[in-house]
Amino acid sequence: MTILVLILGILLLVALITWAKVNAFLAFIIVALLAGCCFGMPFTAVIASVNKGLGDTLGSVAIIIVLGAMLGKLVAESGAAQRIAHFMHGLFGARYVSYAMALTGFIVGIPLYYNVGFILLVPIIFSVASSYRLPLLYVGMPMLTALSVMHGFLPPHPSPMTLVSVFHADVVKTFGYGLIIAAPAIIIAGPIFSATLKKIGPNGLQFAGSSVNLPADELPGIVNSICSSLLPVVLIGVAYLLPVLFGETSFIKNIASWLAEPIIAMLVTIIISTYTLGLYKGRPLAKIMDAYVSAVKDIAMVLLIIGSAGALKQVFVDSHLSDALAGMLINSTMHPLLLAWLATACLRLCLGSATVAGVTAAGVLFPIVHHAAINTNLLVLAIGAGSLFGSHVNDTAFWLCKEYFRLSVKETLRSWTVMESLVSVIGLAGVLLLDFLL
Fold first, then answer.
1. CB neighbours of 288 closer than 8 A, spacing ≥ 6?
2. Beta-carbon neighbour count of residue 209 at 10 Å?
3. What's the whole-model pTM score?
4. What is the H or E stretch that residue 135 is in?
5. 384-to-65, 155, 157 alpha-carbon distances in Å
């Protein structure tokens, strides 16, 4: 009976979001309350579970996600992303322009959320395609691939960060493994796959003069731009090198553990970047703070969706559904990481949003951590890979690609949907290979 309630709950969630067009936050809360009651929990206990799940989930990730949004906004509005794109464009030249675009998306995609990065970098794609007289998709798809991979696989993006918290994974190891998997996924689904798209969509010349960029003299320097964007990664890397370089004294250990905390790394980055990308360039502090407020508004609903997904997960746990589900997972002959990818891919196909699919899978797959010998860092990446599979007409990113690049639905399926599926399958292959090697 409990498994039937779970299936009906997931189907109701899908129907509310995709058919009835109910806001995902409201849909999660409604399903969590109904599921708790159907599981036979007292209503007061259901409310307590919802409050606990929402609070616990947001309490562990909200600060990092908010700080990440602030950094992304600063990188975008300061022109740092534009500077990085133009530098890569000049460094690689026409022959390797697709690799330049992929590397730009990779660097910019660390602090920027997908939709923000897309809107920001599309004018640069148009500009590069126009100057080299190349097809838009050939130039743009590698950059979009890198942005998508970073969004789905790596912290501090919302879904991966939530999964790290739920499964108590190591954020540094998850990021490191994610980079190993991300590199081949970006190269194969980006520059290599984009070579098959040269005859699809309009040529860049049709968009000449359409891009709106900051004047060159207002852009920050390339070293400033790259260092500010990658500083969180650098700080966490330094934290792990300190004991190796200076010995494992108590003082060094304390400094290293302090720097290794993602919240500290992000906060230090915000403080430094506020000066290097803002005050140093003559931008008033009040305007920088206004940009930060705007950044938080942009991701407010994302935070609420993540919290409500945590509420549903907590209802599943407190109703003892996890025990019944764990028995099914244990008795399954399928590899647990493959099972996690498959379940998330199905949710992605039904729900559209990669973030919603990822955080929903966290609740469904939560029991697997306690009842199977599984590397939680790889579990995060398996779910992240599954959350990117098969983007189609119920995904806003699908329509962004279609409308901006002036494609038909068929052309968007041939390009964007195939690229997302390639990334997902390559990500799964990388996860399974790492699981075999580790």
1. 74, 274, 278, 279
2. 8
3. 0.72
4. none
5. 16, 10, 11
